[in-house]
Design goal:
GO terms for molecular function: nucleic acid binding. With 155 residues, the chain is α+β, with helices and mostly antiparallel strands. The chain has a domain of 98 residues: Trna Endonuclease, Chain: A, domain 1 (3-Layer(aba) Sandwich). Helices cover 17% and strands 30% of the residues. A five-stranded mixed β-sheet has the order 1-2-3-5-6. The protein has a three-stranded antiparallel β-sheet with strand order 4-8-7, with no helix packed on it. β5 and β6 form a beta hairpin. It is globular and about 45 Å long.
């Protein structure tokens, strides 16, 4: 059994991110997918997994439940790429991670959950984000890994 106290200050964002990347790979391996990792994460892809019909790319993000927003820089998250997925780990103290799987194409239909910020004329770079407000969390149920995995396995 591992620690489920995600709010501990010793668990820096980098440590949580590393934990969730390994957890993501193990989760997909448990469904029989082969996965491949690069030595350097410099293009927003954390790992690739092989399906029957080809390869899928995964960006992994972890967020503590107290946070309400997570984002991917537009430079590294191509919402026209049908092989790209965001694997999100929502961490709530005392619970195992809630794992969600979002196709990058979901951001093509921006709404209150799937958002885009251009930051035109500002210092911040454009980004795609997920609004994880308390009212939006129940709307994400269809994106839980266990609800999305069969579509991946058929690919």
């Amino acid at each position: 059994m591992y620690n489920l106290n995600w709010s501990r200050k010793e668990l820096t964002p980098q440590k949580l991110g590393t934990f969730c990347e390994y957890y993501a790979k193990m989760s997909l391996a448990s469904y029989g997918l082969n996965k491949f990792t690069s030595e350097v994460d410099d293009h927003g892809i954390d790992f690739v997994a092989e399906t029957k019909k080809g390869f899928l790319k995964f960006q992994v993000k972890s967020i503590r439940k107290s946070s309400k927003y997570v984002f991917m820089r537009k430079d590294y998250f191509d919402i026209s790429d049908k092989s790209l997925y965001l694997m999100l780990f929502l961490l709530n103290d005392g619970e195992h991670p809630a794992i969600y799987l979002f196709p990058a194409t979901a951001w093509n239909d921006a709404n209150s959950i799937f958002v885009y910020h251009s930051y035109e004329g500002k210092k911040s770079k454009p980004e795609y984000g997920l609004n994880l407000s308390d009212k939006n969390i129940p709307k994400l149920e269809s994106f839980r890994l266990e609800n999305m995995i069969s579509a991946l396995l058929d690919m």
